[in-house]
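Q: Got a minute? One more chain.
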Amino acid sequence: MASNMFLYWGTGSVPCWKAMIALEEKGFGGYPNQLISFDNEENKADYVTKLNPRGQVPAFKDGDIVVNESWAICDYLERRYGNQGTQLIPSDIKEQANVLQRMYEIFNVENTVLKELAYYYMFDTTDENRDETVLKERYEMGRTELLIWEGYMQKMGSGAFIASKTFSMADVYFFPYLAFFVRLGLNLSKFPALSEYYNRVKDRASVKASWPPHWLKEPSKNNFMSHV
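A: Always. Here it is, folded:
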């Protein structure tokens, strides 16, 4: 039951958003939760580190079971509550194989587009010490990675999802990254299949219910990913 659950989370955090979409898809909307402030380092507070000694969110409890790491939370929810809400891992073996492939392939998006490009621009450098040659290389890496996913979406066809005909765990994993990149200025007109996918999935009930609240209040001031 949702009332037995508890989630610590941060707004705009891709890992937190993944867990929150999964909770909504499994029918646990309204679960007890607490929004923490990264600016105030509340993720290092005792009430968080009691669940996750790394001081990271999402930190999740289901009764007396503690699960941390967004990938593990999503996997746990589907394994324990597989017959409830949306079936996030298809039964059809071919669709299941494709969903599993995309789920783990998303590590490439995290490592290439998020960490190599977005983090380099946002956290690792300033305008004064940013190496434009390195940045150009990383833009190209990001573009190349996103074009692979554009190809996957083109192959799936309009109205489908990233790995199957129905919404799956691959979408739970992938969409928050895509939405984060859009917020950073990614121009989806360069990726028409992903654009159609994004505009459809952003209106899905689970996504709307868990949309980062500060995104609704504060327009993005970043447009550096428009160069991708």
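A: The beta strands are 5-9, 33-35, 59-62, 65-68.
Q: Perfect, thanks.
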